[in-house]
Amino acid sequence: MAQDRGPRRLGDFVAFFLKKNGLDRPVKTRSLAASWEAAVGDPRLATHARPGTVRSGILKVEVDSSVLLQELGFRRREIVKRLAELAPECGVKDIRFVMGSPRKAQ
């Protein structure tokens, strides 16, 4: 780093270090989990699906029912748009729904 740039905030260095080393993901995941129910819009649906990791802008979501997987699939674009509004720092551009057991993970 160049010495002539002047003083910098310690938080900027910490954020840079965490992002560079992939350690900022847990913080982003918590932000995403907090926004999930509002993005889905129906608490009954949201409790049967658990957002996971975001890789290359694609959020992986585990769903415990094939019927709900299909329903959420129909609403995918709407949910992505809401997540972009509610948790822009997560960088969600698309969602991939997969069968899983989200109740056990909560």
Keywords, please?
18% strand, three-stranded mixed beta sheet, elongated
Account of the protein in words:
This protein has a single domain (8-105), classed as DnaA, N-terminal domain (GMP Synthetase, Chain A, domain 3, 2-Layer Sandwich). The protein has six helices and three strands. The protein has helices spanning 10-20, 25-40, 43-46, 66-74, 76-86, 102-105; strands at residues 49-55, 58-63, 94-99. A hairpin with a 2-residue loop joins strand 1 and strand 2. Helix 2 (25-40) crosses helix 5. The longest helix has 16 residues, at 25-40. It is elongated. The model has no long low-confidence stretch (mean pLDDT 81).
Measured between the Cα atoms of the first and last residue, the distance is 42 Å
The shape, in one word, is elongated
- Please tell me the CATH architecture by its name: 2-Layer Sandwich
Counting DSSP H or I runs of 4 or more residues, the number of helices is 6
Main sheet overview: 3 strands, mixed
Number of strands: 3
In the sheet with the most strands, the strands line up as: 1-2-3
Helix content: 40-55%
Radius of gyration over C-alpha positions, nearest whole angstrom: 17 Å
Count of structural domains: 1
Counting helices, strands and paired strands, the structural category is: alpha+beta
Uncertain runs? none
Instruction: Just give the CATH class.
Output: Alpha Beta
What's the CATH topology label? GMP Synthetase, Chain A, domain 3
